[in-house]
């Protein structure tokens, strides 16, 4: 797998007859991790869905260009807020969901899935039902499933928000290690998560919403929790998010 | 032991009702051709065993065949509707209209077309469960959580595999309630068919016994029908559970 950068332009999204954002553009460098923050209703999750070409009910448009000019479809992996494990497939078969949906998983692919489960520390759970796992373990299986696809671009929509704080920090370390080298776009509500994991932080806010940069701490991701930079910038980032004009979606009229 | 422990409250209830029934018959002195006592039903059951089992065999075949054909064709219809969008506009209105046809009124016509044999009864049992099974399955197939569909799309699933590997298993719980419902409705179809016109089967036997004032025999036939109906329900439930070892079910028959 080689790294792949991509950029978007002319991104627009309507909500209740108004442009929530219009003419957005951004570039994502190959192998970089971008944290996308914004308040609820800013349209950040919708933007991520637009990049993934997933259905959204509202009027939208987006021009997507990859560095090699070929389509992004088939080369991106998607991690949602919930782990989305299928309860009727054993853990290993959830990791193998991609090949199972495109054909029949081969023995070699099964072997590879086992290795990935080993990487996320769940080799011994391979033959179990997902319902026997804890929230953190389930999210690790979802990570293994994402890794199996070996996609150069990974889109994550608050992937660690459903687990407790300690588990989340552990998942950060794991994700940063295993997804290194991929171009990651991470939508998150958690300023600390963005500061630990991002090479670049983008804030979506305003009316209509714009993307603005926020300086990231020094050092390699995942950055230590107690790094002075991280601590200081967390409060700055919260203040910045707080002051960003709230997307006014209640009072708008078509 | 634990089965008995779970069942005893139900057994106490059933035997209380039977006891009450027996007392009522003895105290009021109601004639046996109006309401036979449980004991005389038991007696009729014992003395007409061969007759009862012969007719029961016929009815059971009709019910099971109707159930299988109805469930398979209902599921097939639901899958076709979910897979081929074009079919919906043609097939859904027809399905809706066919549901409005009173099936009991169809029974005489089925006799006319298919004769007095088993076929008409099997068709009747099939028809009575076909639409409900098709519609619950189709509803289940349409209500796949969006997150799984998103995942299928980003993983590059084709429509057929998405339907079979995601939408169908996701619909299994809904499908299970459709099947359980079908299991309790199929006997009705078969018996109605037998009432309208037949020369064998429990429905025929009951009608015949009724005409001869053998009400105890009628109740004995009913006892077989009820027992089989309950057995069929629990078998269907068990089969559906076997199909879903991953499913945490709190609405099933035994809980």
From TrEMBL, chain B:
Q: What is its main location?
A: membrane
Identify the keywords attached in UniProt to this record, alphabetized.
Cell membrane, Membrane, Transmembrane, Transmembrane helix, Transport
Matching entries from Gene3D superfamilies are given as: MetI-like
Q: What are the recorded Gene Ontology BP terms?
A: transmembrane transport
A single GO CC term, please?
plasma membrane
Give the bilayer topology: Multi-pass membrane protein
Q: What is this protein called?
A: ABC transporter permease
Kindly name one Pfam family recorded for this protein: BPD_transp_1
Q: Which PROSITE patterns match?
A: ABC_TM1
Family classification: Belongs to the binding-protein-dependent transport system permease family.
Q: Which residues are listed as membrane-spanning?
A: 7-35, 55-82, 94-116, 122-141, 170-193, 213-234
Q: Which domain of life is it from?
A: Bacteria
Q: Which residues form the ABC transmembrane type-1 domain?
A: 56-236
Give the species. Answer: Chromohalobacter moromii
Location of this chain's protein in the cell: Cell membrane
- InterPro entries per the UniProt record, alphabetical: MetI-like (IPR000515), MetI-like_sf (IPR035906)
